[in-house]
């Protein structure tokens, strides 16, 4: 199974890339994780927010593998505890399909894309910078895997 993180935004600070790389290399071979950075639509030229999000939606959709299970990160999504995310990860693994987790751009995800996703989850009630979301997501997915594997990384 592969966890594919599709994130709008190609530039992140060095600390965020270093943190992503550190967590990504910890995943076992049977649970690969990959990041696909999607170009942010330029916020110039008088385009409406809807037009910007629609352009980013097209890029995201083009990056999604056929038949993958799509999970949108959304501030209005379901909040999960670490244990609930671990259970969710087990369910995703049982699906037998790759899972794509979507991180929107500066204006969020296009509403049609959020609606089309099979699931919507949120990482926090706080507003987080996009670079931080990538790091937090990869760390929490690693933590969920470690819970399921009985690894001592997570302690209750």
Short description:
The chain has five helices and five strands; from the N terminus they run E-H-E-H-E-H-E-H-E-H.
Write a structural description.
- This protein has 156 residues and is α/β, with parallel strands linked by helices.
- Helix content is 42%, strand content 22%.
- The chain contains 5 helices and 5 strands; from the N terminus they run βαβαβαβαβα.
- The protein has a 5-stranded parallel sheet.
- α1 links the parallel β1 and β2.
- The model has no long low-confidence stretch (mean pLDDT 93).
List the helices and strands and how they pair.
Layout: E1 2-8, H1 14-24, E2 32-38, H2 49-63, E3 69-79, H3 82-95, E4 99-103, H4 111-116, E5 119-122, H5 130-149
Parallel strand pairs: 1-2, 1-4, 3-4, 3-5
Q: How many alpha or pi helices? A: 5
Helix-strand pattern: EHEHEHEHEH
State Rg: 15 Å
Number of strands: 5
- What's the rounded overall pLDDT mean? 93
Helix content: 40-55%
Strand content: 15-25%
Mass-distribution shape: globular
Strand order of the largest sheet: 2-1-4-3-5
Largest sheet: 5 strands, parallel
Model regions low in confidence, pLDDT < 50 over at least 5 residues: none
What is the SS-derived class?
A: alpha/beta
What is the CA-CA span between the terminal residues? 27 Å
List keywords for this structure.
single chain, 156 residues, alpha/beta, globular, five-stranded parallel β-sheet, 5 strands
């Amino acid at each position: 199974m592969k966890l594919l993180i599709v994130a709008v935004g190609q530039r992140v600070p060095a600390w965020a890339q270093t943190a992503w790389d550190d967590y990504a290399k910890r995943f076992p071979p049977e649970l690969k994780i990959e990041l696909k950075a999607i170009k942010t639509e330029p916020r110039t030229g008088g385009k409406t927010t809807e037009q910007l999000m629609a352009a980013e939606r097209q890029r995201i959709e083009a990056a999604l593998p056929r038949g993958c299970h799509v999970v949108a990160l959304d501030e209005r999504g379901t909040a999960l505890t670490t244990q609930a995310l671990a259970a969710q990860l087990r369910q995703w693994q049982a699906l037998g399909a790759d899972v794509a987790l979507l991180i929107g751009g500066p204006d969020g995800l296009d509403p049609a894309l959020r609606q089309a996703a099979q699931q919507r989850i949120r990482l926090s009630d706080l507003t987080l910078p996009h670079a931080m979301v990538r790091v937090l997501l990869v760390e929490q997915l690693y933590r969920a895997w470690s819970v399921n594997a009985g690894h001592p990384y997570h302690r209750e």
